[in-house]
Amino acid sequence: MLLPLAYLLIRATGAGAAALDVLFNSRTLRVLINSVAITATVTTLAALWGVPLAWLTTRTDLPGRKIWTALVVLPLVIPSYVGGFALVASLGPKGMLQEALAPLGVERLPEIYGFVGATYALLLFTYPYLVLTVRAGLQRMDPSLEEAARGLGYSPWQTFWRVTLPALRPSLAAGALLVALYTLSDFGAVSLLRFNSFTRAIYIQYQSSFDRSAAAVLSLVLVTMTILVLVAERRTQGRARYHRLSGGVGRKSRPVRLGRWKWPALAFCAFVVTAALIAPFTVVLIWFARGVIAGETFAPMWEAAWHSIEAASLAALAAVLLGVPVAYLSVRFPSRFATVVERSAYIGYGLPGIVVALSLVFFGANYLPILYQTLPMLVFAYVVLFMPQALGALRANLLQTSPRLEEAARSLGLNPRRVWVRVNLPLLRPGLWAGAALVFLTTIKELPATLLLAPTGFDTLATQIWSASAEAFFARAAAPALLLLAISALSIFILLSQEE
Amino acid sequence: MISLRLRDVWKRFGEYSAVSGASFELEKGQLLALLGPSGCGKTTTLRLIAGFETPDRGEIEIGGRLVAGPGVNLAPEKRRVGMVFQEYALFPHLTVLDNVLFGLKSRDGKAKTRAETVLEMVGLKDAGERMPHELSGGQQQRVALARALAPEPDLILLDEPFSNLDAALRVRVRAEVREILKEAGATAVFVTHDQEEALSLVDRVAVMLEGRVQQIASPHELYFQPATRAVADFVGDSNFLPGRARGRVVECELGELPTQRPASGPVDVLLRPESIEARPAGPDAGYRVVDVTFFGHDQLVRIRKLDTGLVFDARLWPSYQFFPGQPVEIRVAGPVMVYAQNEKETTKAPLR
Fold this sequence. Notes:
The structure holds two protein chains of two kinds.
Chain A: H1 3-14, H2 17-24, H3 26-59, H4 65-73, H5 80-91, H6 96-101, H7 115-140, H8 143-151, H9 156-167, H10 169-185, H11 188-192, H12 198-208, H13 213-237, H14 262-293, H15 299-332, H16 336-350, H17 353-367, H18 375-400, H19 403-411, H20 416-445, H21 448-453, H22 461-470, H23 474-499
Chain B: E1 2-13, E2 16-27, E3 31-35, H1 42-50, E4 57-62, E5 65-69, E6 72-73, E7 81-84, H2 96-101, H3 109-121, H4 137-149, E8 155-159, H5 167-184, E9 188-192, H6 195-201, E10 204-209, E11 212-217, H7 219-224, H8 229-234, E12 239-252, E13 255-271, E14 276-280, E15 287-294, E16 299-305, E17 311-316, E18 327-332, E19 337-340, H9 343-348
Parallel strand pairs in B: 3-9, 3-10, 7-8, 8-9
Antiparallel strand pairs in B: 1-2, 1-4, 4-5, 5-6, 10-11, 12-13, 13-19, 14-18, 15-16, 15-18, 16-17
Helix pairs in contact in B: 3-4, 4-5
């Protein structure tokens, strides 16, 4: 896990003076400012959307709360490059809006490329993280805290600011962290909307120049930023502890009655769902229909779909196989060694996909030429990036199974190997499935690592959508996009049904 | 025949000494309670017997076979020991019947008959097809017991088996478990911190304090003849007062009392609150009631000796109604236990 990263460091420092040049030239500064600006803006806007949505769907008598909850969270399944494609195809200079306005003599629309477009695209598909974390925070919060505040003479409004919001700080921070990390590491939306943040700059450097150490240096700066975001989140945790005060089953708080505010609330929800879900989906559908009418062939798509499923299944399998011993070690035999092993598995998860991919490109090209640009290398990259998802599911599962069960089986005459077959594996089954499904779902949507590491000619749905929409062949991107959305939605459905 | 024998068993975890030289024996067919406060090493002792921990020193024999000792450490699955865990540890993915079948080697009709017999013994004949989570706590407890009994182990170990049951259920389940174990002719070791549980459940009680077995005796003997002051302190309520022993009698503030064992010199006298009798008396009586706690089936009365200020508790029948300040006269029933004082206390003890 650490080896490729170490190599990235060597590579960047090895460049010496040239590296410093890259580090301090004005273009790098520009990229840095761009990245900071878009991360801060997207995170802030996502909070402004996410917190009200979370509150409305948990604490009020908003009509149809259950359906709204599902609908506002659903955009999570839309990969950012599909969103970017929908945005460019509808509002781009030669998109659907321009076509509609063409009879009125509109030749070109103002540019949506750049900061505004990229921010908007990222916002649409990241705010659900905040909805989810803040919802969880609101549900966990002991209603007696708010009641105590009311009893001490605070109005509902004061209670919200003085009690509810501070108690939500950890959930807000956790959600904001997810959004910020997503924005920093996103490649699909920024590349399609041509906004020069780090990931796009790294890709361009990698593509265009012989000397790839510039890309390595930029990657290291991006890694540093990622670490800074993580540290900042830790800092906000502060000293307070936010556990439920007493044990036992928590009471449900009484829902707030919205009264006349019901209508603006409904309008807000409807607007978000239209912008983030209905509009992109409609655009993809329309272009799909156009493609069918124009006689696009589906053969390349089926091949890409097969590649996607093949690579994602292998990644899911590998992640689970590697995850079981790591999770078991860390849960059953906690030690410094186990912690180090587990933490290092998380490093790849915190890193932008393009950085991991780039480091593997360097590493593979120099030390493992047999594996370079082969399927195993790609699968390895996926495992580095996404194994913690399997690990998390397995850990949670293991924590719920008492070690006493293993001991009971031992004292009933089973040797350790048979204890695994007859007790541990059957009990781990939900975790194995959940972990594999999570890895599969994330892998199938992954773009930058696939672009950089896939064997030549190994098109996946993700790369097909990206390259078609980057060249404005919108009709060609629509069919794989639709298929990808269907697969993602299906896996989410399977995951949720496992939770029941 | 001896079913279980521990000889000078030691176990430490890092700096912390969990078991320091535990030794005891248990006859076949007997029930033993390992009684002690939390952290006294009793659960570790149980896990050493089961084979989930390895002793640093000492020997453990089960059914005449050395299972742990110098150069020997039999795996848990080879010890023929049935374990009932505090949280029952029923396999959640298996039915009740499959749980009971789990430890039976063969999968034939004989195993099934055995499993059904054991389930019937614990009164759950018809629950075989149910899943563990569909049962009540008391029923899960009995399934765990059935699962441990099914392979006919040499020894059954029960780790705080009743602590997850609510108080009302506990007394009933306790009696049931005792009956089942006796009917099966099983040899069993219970670990418990609840002295009432230990005294009412088993044939023999081993009191464990600070990693050592202090005394192993029948419940009756343990209560009335605790081997050390620490054991007396831990089991039951006690008043201690200083005294001076001369052979079979001891002289103390409550007068001259017969002792259970001959002793001499400065001693601590153990007075169980039950062995003190008190009666209302006239105003010139030498004792006064300080405080009364009424329980219904009995009452705890705190009494002060007027001339010396000595205060002690008496557990009395509920028939008299006492009130603070009331003059009473007292009598001590039966011979008492005395414990030699250590030197430091001797110099401080008031002599008369």
